[in-house]
Design brief:
Beta-galactosidase, Chain A, domain 5; 29% helix; single chain
Length: 605
Amino acid sequence: MLAANKEKSNPLSSRRDVVAALNAMLGALDKQFPQESSRFSLGDTGAHYATDIAQMEGLSRALWGLFPLMASGDAAPFSDKYITAITLGTDPQSAGYWGETAPYDQRLVEMAAYGLGLSLLQDKLTARFSERELQNLHTWLNQITDAQMPDSNWNYFAIMVQLGFKRAGMPFDQSAIDRRFAMMDEYYLGDGWYSDGPGRPKDYYISMAFHFYGLIYATLSGDDERAAVLRERARLFADDFIYMSAADGASIPFGRSLTYRFAMVAFWSAVAFSGLDVFTPGIVKGVILRHLRWWQQQPILDRDGILTLGFAYPNLVMCEDYNSPGSPYWALKTYLILALPESHPFWQADEQPLPERAEKHVIPHAQQILIHAEHSQHVTMLTAGQLELNNFVNTDAKYTKFAYSSRFGFTIERGRYGIKHAACDSMLLLADGDNYFRGRRDCAEVRVDENFIFSRWSPWHDVHIDTWLVPFGEWHLRLHHIDSARTLQTVEGGFAVMKTEHRLQENGCFLQAENGSSVIVDLSPAIVRVPDGVVTPPNSSIMFAQCASIPVLATEIPVGKSWLCCAVTASGEQKHYAVIPQLHINSNQVVIHEPGSERQLAFFI
């Protein structure tokens, strides 16, 4: 699939296609993999851990694809090299030894892949090692049992290792499993949702970590009581998570670790692997394969067929400080489906489209509302904004914008001065006369209603903003009530599209670009905002490398109380919007109406 441009002809419609895609990726890695080595280098960029650990990380992440392939009984032409690497990496007498771990060590993360291998392959894997080599492997992995780690999805790494020990007939610690599960239960929110640790965000780690590992554990552990809980939580989560997928195979980019790319649908691979009864095998198969085909069309490989750092193209600017050259290979978690044989119902099923989705879906625990427009060809997420306490790179852009799009993604900040660098798409930004802009970051209050998401935020200690995000058909409306002790300059942006000429009307900016259309229209009841377009630097969009155009509304607000309101929409088509929602705010009631139709929404604020 993804090893070189010539592989784009692979239709990815059968198990054989997916096996060929994986082997193409492993083949590209193999060319960087020296004989008799316990690690390999995929590039010279840095992470916050040592280079030798980054090289071990890349090797280990390849195993998320290789181990399921080996478990199926298929030919695994690269397996001998990896087995040798494991024996060298876990041997304290070897020059290639992976070393003793420290608290919060990246090597603890990578241990989960070895737990998966032991769990899936059992004696098929242990038979590849001598008794001494097997003891070395156990000793090295066992460092995780009582390791100090972030109280987050990392707890599952220890569980995966213990599950591997148990399944492979090696000494294991049930109390460690129980303790880690008890820690994670503390941040279970209900209805299938976790936060990624106490007070942490609800992002793709809930799908590609919590439920991914949980369904593997539920399927392989023999722990029926806990398995029942994990499966029920995953079933509830699936009913919400299906809304993150668009009909064309794309998923909404949101949050950190987006360089893991097609791990965005690893949850559905775990659903297939576990036989979770939530959607038909054909629907699950369609979600996964359409997603892989979507990635097949993105320029995410270098000239040697190696996955690059970035999202829809190589882009170091948007990466986290824990992203090394080998990090993107966590994407191979999605290849868990290869552990299923050709005869499995998943592979025998005909691919089916997304099930019929409601136009609007509210997820209270995630503080999100999903909008499916154009028969799910474009999916928009409205969000209350989540403060990521670790303040990873471009945290504000990844978590706190008003809206995220399956087609247009979002832009990232390229500098602290000036609006063109400030990632103003899907944001209201404010400046105090100095051209340094601030937007929503932390929220003092959040409320999720069936009709809107409300947040209260303060960009300065004496500036307080109440924001309502309201889905309305293919549009969403933003209502901001501002109480300011300062005169401020404001800019509010719609979705970012490829650089294009902007068409201005009296109350809005309308963009028609190569990749679609984007519109923002002013509905403010008293203040007049000036429509305009902002062009960002190249590599600021996570979806395309070219400069981006953002439709914006700009004005200055006085000291005191003000309303700023707008309607926003976008489409993958070059659409013309003749009908704009109308807004009326009377006292504490909001009424939104679509001219020429019976569509109307009213609520109290």
